[in-house]
Amino acid sequence: MDQEIITLAIQAITKEIQCQPNNANLYKERGRLRKMNGDEKGAIEDLQEAIKRNPKILSEIEGIFHNN
Q1: In a domain, 66, yes or no
Q2: Cβ 27 vs Cβ 53: under 8 Å
Q3: Which of 1, 47, 59, 68 could form a cystine bridge with 31, CB 3.0-4.6 A?
Q4: How far is CA 18 from the centre of its chain?
Q5: Residues 16 and 40: beta-carbon distance below 8 Å
Q6: Crossing angle, helix 40-53 and helix 24-36, to 10 degrees?
Q7: CB-based burial of residue 61 (10 Å sphere; 0-12 exposed, 13-18 middle, 19+ buried)?
Q8: How many domains are there within the chain?
């Protein structure tokens, strides 16, 4: 995926998180995109937020750091 597109997607999800701060799926998706964009620290922070909001999401995010 093009890095510019990833950056735009991250920005869009960030705006959506402001409207839905408890949506674990938004944090999960932004974390996945941050990982793809080379921002491992940001990805980890987002994935931790996703788990904090919905511990069941852990099974969905386990592969994010193992698929690259």
Answers
A1: no
A2: yes
A3: 47
A4: 14
A5: no
A6: 160
A7: buried
A8: 1
Residue 16 lies inside a defined structural domain of this protein: yes
* One pLDDT digit (tens) per residue for the chain, 68 residues: 699 999 999 999 999 999 999 999 999 999 999 999 999 999 999 999 999 999 999 988 877 776 54
Q: Which amino acid is at 45?
A: E
For residue 62, count CB atoms less than 10 angstroms from its CB and return exposed for 0-12, middle for 13-18, buried for 19 or more: exposed
Q: Which domain holds residue 43?
A: 3-61
Cα angle, residue 28 at apex, residues 64 and 26 outer, rounded to 5°:
155
In a domain, 68, yes or no: no
CATH of the domain at 42: 1.25.40.10
